[in-house]
Automatic annotation (TrEMBL):
This is N(4)-(Beta-N-acetylglucosaminyl)-L-asparaginase. Keywords: Autocatalytic cleavage, Hydrolase, Protease, Signal. GO terms for cellular component: lysosome. It catalyses: N(4)-(beta-N-acetyl-D-glucosaminyl)-L-asparagine + H2O = N-acetyl-beta-D-glucosaminylamine + L-aspartate + H(+). The keyword Signal applies.
């Protein structure tokens, strides 16, 4: 009997050539069914704005509307009850990036990220220093706390600070929540996964001439340890854009996903000839080999306007929904992909 030799995944991906023909350009794609964000970005492109303008406006709309409570002010309070924001934006023509993490007092995180890109020689500013920079650039300082975030925090305290993201430690016996001390024996952290606890908007915009931009905005993980930064503002993890290949943006469990730079991997696979569907699946598969039940998804688009998404089948996530606007629809359309 003749033995059949199976090709490794990366070979299969690289031999998956782009389909013939050209999809509709321009195009806007964003994670989750955030229709108003997609419509805002699409309107910018239709009125002659740049892809950077489109990404900024789309993400800013979610910041204003507090999309699913996972973007913008008043959501995901940390262990001290404070809401902090992460965001990034990337110019696929110049490969410039601006990002902020652990941003306080400023509601327009994606706007501050763009200011970092266009008004400094830096890529990423964090914490209080990022907030001071924003104020110096004219952004208005405001309280990011709302009645909703205060209630989330209060209920967490009443529940003895569970879930939390500490592991191998135990709290001071006289208190229900920290300070924490090292535990001698290994013990997994007590935590209840909530799909809305680690979420974001990731957005891709490609104009008629093939200029590409991508961006993200999030308020991070509910009950996170103060100072925690996820994948969203990390270049190549939360998003990546290259006008010679395409763009990708990820969403999900940022503490896991950022270790694998899925957005960068997907774009590089598209550069090598993979279609967006194969690139997205390969990026998810790489993470899945190490974390079989991680919560996450990714959207991908190449410069011809072809797009796709992929997600890991995990508790609470069997399908992933995302939005697409292009010249064929001229309005945001909800798309769904089955997780694998």
């Amino acid at each position: 009997m003749r033995r059949v030799r199976l090709l490794p995944l990366h070979v299969l991906v690289l031999t998956s050539l782009l389909p013939l023909g050209r999809e509709a350009l321009p195009v806007v794609i964003n994670t989750w069914p955030f229709r108003n964000a997609s419509a805002a970005a699409w309107s910018v492109l239709q009125s002659g704005g740049s892809v950077l303008d489109a990404v900024e406006e789309g993400c800013a709309r979610c910041e204003i509307e507090q999309c699913d409570g996972s973007v913008g002010y008043g959501g995901s309070p940390d262990e001290t009850g404070e809401t902090t924001l992460d965001a990034m934006i990337m110019n696929g023509d110049t490969m410039e990036v601006g990002a902020v993490a652990d941003l306080r007092r400023i509601k327009n995180a994606i706007g501050v990220a763009r200011a970092v890109m266009e008004r400094t020689d830096h890529t990423l500013l964090v914490g209080e220093s990022a907030s001071v920079f924003a104020e110096n650039m004219g952004f208005i300082a405001e309280d990011l706390t709302t009645n909703k975030s205060v209630n989330i925090f209060s209920q967490w305290l009443k529940g003895n600070c569970q879930p939390n993201y500490h592991k191998n430690v135990f709290p001071d016996p006289s208190k229900s929540c920290g300070p924490y001390k090292p535990r001698v024996t290994l013990e997994q952290r007590r935590r209840q996964d909530n799909m809305l606890s680690h979420d974001t908007i990731g957005m891709i915009a490609i104009d008629q001439d093939g200029h590409v931009a991508a961006g993200t905005s999030t308020n991070g993980l509910t009950h996170k340890i103060p100072g925690r930064v996820g994948d969203s503002p990390i270049v190549g993890a939360g998003a990546y854009a290259d006008s010679s290949a395409g763009a990708a943006a990820a969403t999900g469990d940022g503490d896991v996903m950022m270790r694998f730079l899925p957005s960068y991997l997907a774009v590089e696979l598209m550069r090598a000839g993979a279609d967006p569907s194969a690139a997205c699946k390969a990026a998810i598969s790489r993470i899945k080999r190490h974390h079989s039940e991680f919560f996450g998804a990714i959207i991908c688009a190449n410069t011809t306007g072809h797009y796709a998404a992929a997600c890991n089948k995990a508790p609470g996530l069997s399908q992933f929904r995302y939005m697409v606007s292009n010249s064929e629809s001229n309005t945001p359309l909800l798309k769904t992909v089955d997780c694998f």
